[in-house]
C-alpha cells in the first residue's frame, strides 16, 4: 500500500538518479511560480491539514517526516504565495525539522532530500538556526563526491546569503510589507540592492 506522503515526494523529487538530475528536472517546481495551481489542486487539502496541526503520524518515519516538512515549509509558499499565510507553517516546520535532526533522520534521506530539511532552518528569522543551517549545508557539501559539489556549493552559498541578512537585520526585510511590519531606512535601502529578496 502506498504511503500517504509518497505521491508528494514523487512529485517533488521525481525519478532522477543523481542530485544534479533531480535538480535539473525539478528546479522550476522548487524555485519558480508556475506550479502553484498544481500544488493547490494536488496537495492543498494535505497542506491545510498540516497547517492546522494534523498529520503527526507522518513523523513516524524519515520519509513521512520529510513529507510533513514539505507540507509545512514549501507548499504554503506556493499555495499562499505573496500572502502572510505563506509563512503560516514555519514555526511548526522548525519544531518538526529539529526533532528529526536530533534523531539523525536526515542521514536516512538522499542528499538532495536533505536540502529541503535544511531549508526550514534557512527560512527562520533566528540567527542560531541560520548558523546551524550553514553548518549543516557545509557538512552536506563535504560528504559529496566531486560530481555533486558544484550543486551543493550553490545550496551552501544561498544559505550563507540568508545567514548574513539575519545577522544584519534579525529578520528578512523583504517580508516586512507582506507581514505588515514597518521597514527601517536601512532595510529600505537594502531592498533596493540586487539579490536582497529571496
Automatic annotation (TrEMBL):
InterPro entries: DUF924, TPR-like_helical_dom_sf. This is Transmembrane protein. The lineage of its organism: Bacteria, Pseudomonadati, Pseudomonadota, Gammaproteobacteria, Pseudomonadales.
